[in-house]
Amino acid sequence: MPLRARMGQDDILAFEYNEKSWNELKKNYKSLLLIMPCCQAKAIPKTSKLGTFFFYHSVKGGCTSEAESPEHEYVKAIVAKSAKDAGWSVKTEWWGKSPSGERWCADVMCFKGEHLKIAFEIQLSPQSVKETQYRQERYKASGVRCAWFVSESSLGKRHFIPSEDIPLFIISKPKVDVIPIIQIFNENIDIFVEAMLSRKVAWKKEPWVYALSYLEDVCWNCNKLNKQFVGYSIDVYGEHFQTMAHASSVLKNARKIVSNDSLTSLGLNTIGRFDVINGKKTDYPYCNVCIHCGAPQNNYQIVKKREASSLHGESITEGCVEYISDKDFSGEWNYKKV
């Protein structure tokens, strides 16, 4: 049930008509030479049993366009009209091609100026996370930003977390003549679309905050006080030295989280890799490096000091510092209601 037909170089958009003007079009369409943009067949204006205006192929024959449900067409019409009301040039069932030659068809395509292109996809049938990611990458390669409106039933039991790369919003169960709600914001989809296109919906990035643990110690080489890095945690997850082998593993993983420059700025020892020490190959190469003299520190001694404190109550000073990551981020979509 396409919503767009062509008359010469002009688009005829079904969602722009009211009942009176649509009935007038149905009377006079033959003289207007309407065609379907998908296959160039003659287009006939129709009204569905549920009252939706759409265009019908006079001859379906060679057209490869898939049939869509009345609910899909209804939501698509709402999104298209809302985008047009927001001042954008709007096309439905808009065909494009990626740089690699793959064809795609956007439910609703919005244009602003020469370069700004935003697509809206209404996904009511089941679609895998992998397929969603693939289609999003295809849009990106084509220079098009895309947002998704999906029903809960289309997700099924699959877990999909909206991201900055894939704006995905769950809507209430679609029903013709009932405007869907964007569930997370409890907002009508028509109002929300206008807000999106008016830059009132934005991704808020939140850096991960780690607790970096240390043990106050003395460097064997320079005899200066230092803070040996012994582990990290975030929320309920964490890793801390347990054995010599585990210490090297923890330090290796920590290097992916925090840079040596950041450790230094926090007053902690840095992390180094030493495959050979004093001419001998090391089985566990990652260790602390003294912040003062650059000497590699002994993981075994650090582990033993922590064990002695835990088992025998020997006095050591441990602590932690907060590290706001410059590498790891999460976030959420924010909607600024007027």
Strand content: 35-45%
- DSSP strand tally: 19
CATH class of the largest domain: Alpha Beta
Shape: elongated
Overall residue-averaged pLDDT value: 88
Q: What's the Cα radius of gyration?
A: 30 Å
Helix content: 25-40%
Calculate the terminal CA-CA distance, rounded to whole Å: 34 Å
Question: What's the total helix number?
Answer: 8
Order of helices and strands: EEHEEHEEEHEHEEEHEEEHHEEEEHE
CATH architecture of the largest domain, by name, is 3-Layer(aba) Sandwich
Low-confidence stretches: none
Instruction: Characterize the biggest β-sheet.
Output: 5 strands, mixed
Class per helix and strand makeup: alpha+beta
CATH fold description of the largest domain:
Trna Endonuclease, Chain: A, domain 1
Number of discrete domains: 3
- Name the strands of the widest sheet in spatial order: 5-6-7-8-9
